[in-house]
Design a protein that fits this description.
By secondary structure, this protein is α+β, with helices and mostly antiparallel strands. The chain contains five helices and six strands. β3 and β4 form a beta hairpin.
Amino acid sequence: MTRTASPLSWRSLLAPGLATLVALAILVGLGTWQLQRKTWKEGLIAQIQARAYAEPGAIVPEAEWSHWQPGDDEFRRVRVTGTFLQDFETPVYGLAPGSPGRSATQGYYLMTPLRLKDGAIVMVNRGFVPMEMKDPASRPESRPTGETTVTGLVRAPEERNMFTPADDPARQSWFTRDPQAIAKAHGLDRVAPFYVEADATPNPGGWPKGGQNRLELPNNHLQYAVTWYGIALTLLGVFTAFAWRRLHPSEA
């Protein structure tokens, strides 16, 4: 004879059932969010591939700088010609990616204003130097004079987070590649809202080393989505087993 579960047994499942539903909704939501991130990441990768490896073009003209948007222009390969204002070279602390099997190297990225023929300025990240080469005197050949042409990628200003130390322009202590902040510290105007990340073309004396930008973006979002959905199914199975044991204690 089959015994019917008592109303008390069903009521005892109410709180665990609600908790399970809430957790299940969160887990499914996380899995779905990861699938959405996967679609976004694939679009970004395709965009970078199309822009970064094309023939270099011109930067956006100054008349359009006021409404420049990273999504429309970032990672585009460009070529720009002007004269470096070496007196305003700004070392920004950062890490250079290490080669396979080697850790990243601490040092500085040299942000240097490039004055165009019309007087406007574009900040150029000329590349990386190690800690001991922060002082220009240690690399006198690294500062070209006269007209120079730079090929590289358009980049948006770096964003700060809660862990980014404050910049201290008076001590030449910088932690973000932000062209507008650097320009303000040096009293420069007509400065582009973006900067150009120089490619790996060798510089005089071998420093700084450009082309440090890594364009290979990880895309593990499908793996993360499967993990969240798997945990959701596991939770559902655990609750089902729990509920069956609670409603059929004698059979359990």
